[in-house]
Amino acid sequence: MVSGENQYFIGNNITTGHCISKYFSQSLVIAHYFRQQEQHNRFVTRDDRPELHQLFDRFIHAVDSDTAMRIMQKLAQPWRSVVSQYPAYL
């Protein structure tokens, strides 16, 4: 977004809201909040990359829910350690 290559960002309400108000208060606004916390993980792909979208779909449908949960926890783990290590910056 900062470089002008993207027009939107999907993120966590708390950390995103803080970063926008601290660093981008004159240039960015939060356009939408979900009414309740989503309990699903989502991948966003570009329209011009259908092969990537199909790859994600095939992968997601091929794994059982326990394996999917372990994968999502592994993907989120590095972010948790950054947040706990540098909470003042978020």
UniProtKB/TrEMBL annotation:
Its EC number is 2.7.13.3. It comes from the Bacteria. Keywords: Kinase, Transferase. One of its GO terms (molecular function) is protein histidine kinase activity. This is Hybrid sensory histidine kinase. It comes from Klebsiella pneumoniae.
